[in-house]
Amino acid sequence: MSLLQQINESISTIPKKYKEMKESELHKRVVTIKQELGDELFIPGHHYQKDNVIHYADARGDSLELAQRSAQTSASHIVFCGVHFMAETADILSSDTQKVYLPDLRAGCSMADMANIKQTERGFSILTDLLGPSIIPMTYVNSTAAIKSFVGTHNGATLTSSNAKSMLRWAFERGERILFLPDQHLGRNTAYELGVPLNQMGVWNPILEKLEYEGDLKDLKIILWKGHCSVHENFTLSNVSDIRKKHPNMKILVHPECSREVVSQSDDAGSTRYIIDTIEKAPSGSSWAIGTEMNLVNRLINQHPDKHIISLNPSMCPCLTMNRIDLPHLTWSLDCIYEGQPVNQIIVDKDTSKFAKIALERMLAKA
Ligand code: 13P
Ligand code: SF4
Question: Does the global pTM surpass 0.90?
Fold first, then answer.
């Protein structure tokens, strides 16, 4: 069944009763099933999930931590509260007897959708013809299993925002240049931190099949796929200057999926784990404007009443696809597993899985 067919099936089949149940009934049902299934069930939850979903997670984490936990669990049923690429990663890293489910198949990632395997094969082939064979393809985990498999086949690896720096160093030891998929901003911010000047970075436009680069090709160090996160692009330089004017003592802390301009004008940048740790360690009374997804920012605001925390963008920025996972879908998913009729299983085929796993393991070995 194609992904589109699966999605349509998911949309049409969540029974109405779950949308009509009171939150207290849904809560009772989730708690009961969790108790009944015990160690057979594992629920990983990404930091961007809603509070009333993350509450039930057996492990909460950033993309790297959740990949690590998915590789370690022995539960037979893994119900992923995150987005599609994370559930695929869990399926690749778990054993053949374990099953991974995504409570709502519409929970995709708009950034991951900005690169498909055909474009990747074509782009890599054109760039290799132009620049020679020494290009290492590296992909942010926010990508399809097929792209992870492609980089695994071509001596590359996956990375996340918490290990991007060490993974790019790893890649530069293996090749002259890197093709970085699919987030140009994480790629640019990380390469810049490693000392690569902006004028040695090019951008690959997969729609026009064009390399956007004005320098001498021999100096080109990294080719950034022209993709971005639709949530983090909503943090702008004008948000930064508003904060500087209104709150001169406030620190600005952003995720590296924000643009280079925003990161360079901020005080600090890091993965969701880094943002959480920084706020936890910050002194009482300190002030922070945070540039990342709204559920996480709101959680930090509620968890740290002794600190002044606001969103860098006052309109707040939700990840609409992450938010597809809600309590009714989680309850439905668990009920179906409990009744022996699971829905929305995420299955990565064996051939794709084999090399995608190699790409992920190269990353996990370094993490
Ligand atoms: P991290 O969890 O790696 O910080 O990534 C954030 C994100 O956008 C996940 O999709
Ligand atoms: Fe994808 Fe951005 Fe949502 Fe993360 S926040 S899942 S990168 S769209």
Answer: yes
